Amino acid sequence: MKKRITSQFMTVLLLFSFATAEAGPMREGWDHGNAGDSYAAEFIMTAKDLVQHLKTLPSTELKGFKIETLIGAIETTTVRSEDVLYYEDGREVEGINKPEQKLILINRRMWRENRVETETLHRYTFVLHEYLWIMGIDDTQYKVSAPIVALLPVKNYDPSKWWNPLNPVNYLMLNLVYNSGACTLAGTSFNLAKTEEMVMVETKGDCGDDYRKVIIAKSSLTAPPSSGSRGTFHRFQIAVTDQAGNNLGQLTYEPEWGRCLGPQTGACASSGKLLVGGVEIIFWLRP
């Protein structure tokens, strides 16, 4: 059974002593970049937008690679940024790719220059160039990426626009870790347009000791100027109790910035499987 939380549940949340959400991004990294690394997030967003444009081209124009392979590279490659980036010979470079590590490093100083509208084509070429090397395709002197991007009807994609939020999530998939089959736990939806939401979800059926109550509070904060991003971000505080109200576990989770911001053709998983109090949780952005 799913209920919207009233004021009585505020007391329950306070009992769990949730940490106060400060106005700044968490710094721990997830699979595809760092939560507070806005440069990495912009790079990934540009790659996702690029994929949508590439789908408009005939496969014969893609110089021997498949879009599905590019999507796979975007999903499995870690992107990180550094203030300034130098190659082994001392030259400052825009990016360094390390295919064996599934890693792309980008130069923040030079990326800031690429944000302007007049650099749109170059920005797309640079992003495709880095992922081509990750895919094992020789793109020396942009011999593959430049001709492809030149064919795209690219408009002025602006990575510095105001995002609300930077880390969109509108659905939490919930499952019991141990389930006899007689007890079930449904997922719950959230409204992207709302800055704060509180939801409680309970198991239903013949649960016995498998009974779980999941209490979720969503808060919204503004990205600080130091992050380099413009917009808000959401943070989720989750607590799990048993039927007697005993606290079985809690967590605070901030979905990765930029993970699901680019144009999506379907649902986007914003997290891996998180476990708390005998409950599996996956954050999603659904169409």
Keywords:
single chain; 287 residues; alpha+beta; Zincin-like; 2 domains; 5-stranded antiparallel sheet; 6 helices; 17 strands
Tally of individual domains: 2
Q: SSE order in H/E notation?
A: EHEEHHEEEHHHEEEEEEEEEEE
Percentage beta strand: 25-35%
Low-confidence stretches: 1-35
What distance separates the N and C termini?
24 Å
Task: Please estimate the helix content.
Answer: 10-25%
* Overall pLDDT score: 81
Structural class: alpha+beta
Number of strands: 17
| Major beta-sheet overview | 5 strands, antiparallel
Q: How many H/I helical runs?
A: 6
Radius of gyration: 21 Å
Shape descriptor reads elongated
Strand order of the largest sheet: 1-10-12-13-14
Structural notes for this entry:
- The strands form 5 sheets. Strands 1-10-12-13-14 form a 5-stranded antiparallel beta sheet, with no helix packed on it. Strands 7, 9, 15, 16 and 17 form a 5-stranded antiparallel beta sheet that branches. The chain has a 3-stranded mixed beta sheet with strand order 4-6-5.
- A hairpin with a 2-residue loop joins strand 2 (29-30) and strand 3 (33-34).
- The chain is α+β, with helices and mostly antiparallel strands.
- It is built from 6 helices and 17 strands.
- It folds into 2 domains: 2-25 and 167-285, no CATH class; 36-150, Zincin-like, CATH 3.30.2010.
- The longest helix has 17 residues, at 38-54.
